[in-house]
Fold Type IV toxin-antitoxin system AbiEi family antitoxin domain-containing protein.
Amino acid sequence: MGVELGRTARRGRRVGSRVIHKRVVGGCTSRPQHAHSLVMTLAKFQGLPVLDDSFPLPLDRPFHRHDAVAEGFPLRWLSALVASGHLRRPLRGVYVAAQVPDDTAARIASLRLVVPDDAVICDRHAGWLHGADMVLAPGEHLGAHPIRVFRFPGSYRLSGPQIDSGQRAMLARDVTEVDGLLVTTKLRTALDLGRQRSAVVALSGVDAMLRADVDRDELLAEVGRFAGERWVRTLRYVAPLSSRLSASPPESAVKLAWYETTGTLPDLQIEVTGPRGRPAFLDLGSKALRFAVEYDGAEWHSSGSDRAHDDERRDHITRVHRYDIDVVTASNVYGPTRDIEAIIRSGLERGRRRLGTAA
């Protein structure tokens, strides 16, 4: 290593996109004060309620990781600020301050940063753009998946970590434009999301698009056009089971488990009166047997106040309306501990026994 000013030189190590220098004097190294300030700056950002004007990147719109590189902002800090909730990561390589509303305008701005003008956005990110809020994979705001796009025949295929592209057969009526972005229509997006290997994933996607105002009758009428295409059997299976009343992917999964356990669809969003006389709704179940299953996700049912509200509501419904309510969580519905089918069978058996006792 070259030596300047006698035995004084500068050595550097990379932290994110910056080089933190150490001054070498007489063979020893000393860390400059600004290296410590970088660490403290990250702590400062994480200590703020929301990011403020001290943050060197946009606070009113999405920005790309390349913008952070240009500002000398360490990329690992972006991940740290996503983890602390100060930033969202709606797409791979795209970030937005937590205070920016997650509306259509912000989603369009995010997609503009990564999608070429002549590419058509499809599948889950098309649903997301159309307002199907729960169509993205769980936790995708923390580790965003590549955006699925296609180009018409004759165009070259895109590649890169942010984009997953290919070609597919489309009719002109399958593509629309949203503020300058090409995207599959809501109907075509629902049909594409229904053609997945997993029936649970497919039904969850179709239900999400019905909640985004896809017409169910139109959906059913279009299924036949995909004869012979990949995973069309899944679409044929889940389309008749779909409903906009399934309010989340886990509710769609429980609905599918109910159907596959009993051969019939459950009643959805069963209306009763709540503790204060207002309408309350049970996720799904059997009105005839007064048995219901409710899914409690961590996002809305984990705090003390959430649990107190849930307990008050369910105690009232059990006491006044005589419903037997089984509460399930992710471990009951997904993965190796899944036991939702047994829960449904047991609840229905209890309901039948109650009918016999009442008679």
